[in-house]
Design brief:
This protein is an alpha+beta fold. The chain is built from 15 helices and 23 strands. The structure holds zinc ion (ZN).
Length: about 450
């Protein structure tokens, strides 16, 4: 088993992440979060929100609708260009994303370039390909009453899309924000929420899924200041990823995306790559989107997107720096950094060395024996006291103490607190450290 398989297995076994619609045999590219997974995910999202929005004077939050007026995707260019190169095997009819099955080609690959790579079909092993075709990755839906026998015109009038990025929900609210909040430039608008991409071949667990959660900021700046603000945003991303989320700096790599591979709206993009168990993959992107989006919205809506800078008495359409990160990608980076196998007392152990601020539970409280009412009662008191103070505290009185430690190690609980007979005498408890397995005795009053 690969390390990724080990992580997938742990996530299912301990209630972090299940395959979507598991009971019906799954549904490709979707994942469901169990009690521990949803807590970890929420903590990651809350840390981001706190770092980039709540603790800053220049950032504001928005939460836009997922289904937007389809003109949004005309203006943004997604209807025309949000497409992947799809190639079909003529032998077995399997469909693939061309740039994912052949080495050394990009999303803009032509049929000839692809055929030159002499790639064999990953399913049947033959080499008999159709032409490269562009496949738009937006999910479609119909809004309002549409019947199966409606004509094509009626049906297409009701056509709408699930948003492929949260960014457009920010851009389309830019005017509402400057007309109501009057923010001083530079300022950022932040959003967290679901985005949908109909990936041709979802793979690598939660790394490439069809439904994901994004955390995006559109940082609006005066046009001639974009470079300094790009550097500012770049430094903030590093600080967030390395200091708050505690990803190891040596597993993070910046990749300057060449012009031909950049998204249609970007003049400069740095991809932040991470060493995942299956190799280096994109963790997040930092893009200079120029005034592309606001100018498109101005054209499509007929409304002015100009900002009046009172300090310098100038009017302009702001340019935008966009840090964009997928929550699930970040979560997998966190999980794969934390996943550790070691040996304790000659036995193999699996331990999730999650940072304290992200671990689903900060403490586990248990009585040494669960059939001694006086121990259970004392342990319940300690549990309640810690819960009131730290919220994320769990109770465990199952099995023997060794089994409890093993379980708490696997879900990443940093400290286990055990109430034993000495506790009844001197009001001290044992605290056992997840990473070192060392135990110390501490007064209950000092917890
Ligand atoms: Zn084939």
């Amino acid at each position: 088993m690969s390390k990724l398989d080990d992580i997938v297995s742990l996530c299912k076994r301990r209630g972090f992440i299940f395959p979507g619609s598991d009971i019906y045999g799954g549904f490709a590219g979707t994942w469901d979060f169990g009690p521990l997974g949803v807590t970890l995910k929420k903590k990651i999202m809350d840390e981001w929100w706190h770092y980039f929005v709540e603790s800053r004077d220049d950032m504001y939050g928005v939460d836009a609708a997922i289904i937007m007026n389809p003109r949004t995707w005309v203006a943004s260019g997604h209807l025309a260009t949000f497409a992947d190169p799809l190639v079909e095997c003529k032998e077995c009819k399997s469909r693939f994303r061309a740039d994912k099955i052949a080495d050394g080609i990009t999303e803009s690959v032509t049929t000839e370039e692809f055929l030159d790579t002499h790639t064999k079909c990953p399913v049947c092993g033959k080499e008999n390909w159709g032409p490269i075709r562009k496949f738009n990755m937006m999910f479609t839906t119909h809004v309002g009453a549409v019947l199966p026998d409606d004509d094509a015109e009626t049906t297409s009038k009701n056509l709408a899309y699930l948003r492929p990025e949260t960014a457009q929900g920010i851009f389309t609210n830019y005017k509402n924000i400057i007309d109501t909040i009057y923010p001083d430039i530079p300022f950022g608008l932040a959003q967290q929420g679901k985005a949908f991409r109909n990936e041709i071949s979802p793979r690598d667990f939660i790394l490439r899924d069809r439904e994901c959660s994004q955390m995006e900021i559109e940082y609006f700046v005066a046009p001639d200041t974009w470079e300094e603000n790009f550097e500012k945003m770049r430094a903030l991303q590093h600080e967030f990823l390395e200091k708050i989320i505690k990803l190891p700096a040596d597993k993070l790599h910046e990749y300057e995306v060449p012009a031909e591979d950049r998204a249609h709206y970007s003049k400069r993009t740095i991809d932040f790559m991470f060493d995942y168990p299956n190799g280096e993959e994109e963790l997040m992107g930092l893009a200079y989107r120029t005034d592309f989006d606001l100018q498109n919205i101005a054209r499509e809506s007929g409304k002015s997107m100009e900002y009046r800078d009172k300090k310098i008495n100038e009017t302009f359409v702001p340019h935008v720096i966009e840090p964009s990160i997928g929550v699930e990608r970040l979560m997998l980076a966190v999980l794969s950094t934390a996943y550790t196998e070691d040996e304790v007392g000659g036995e193999k152990r699996i331990v999730l060395k999650l940072p304290e601020n992200l671990a689903p539970y900060r403490f586990c409280v248990s009585p040494l024996l669960k059939n001694k009412p006086e121990l259970v009662e004392k342990a319940r008191n300690v549990y309640q006291k810690l819960r009131d103070k730290y919220v994320n505290v769990t109770w465990d009185d199952s099995g023997n103490i060794g089994k409890r430690y093993r379980k708490q190690d696997e879900i990443g609980t940093p400290k286990c607190i055990v109430i034993d007979f000495d506790t009844l005498e001197d009001d001290t408890v044992t605290i056992r450290d997840r990473d070192t397995t060392e135990q110390i005795r501490v007064k209950i009053s000092e917890l």
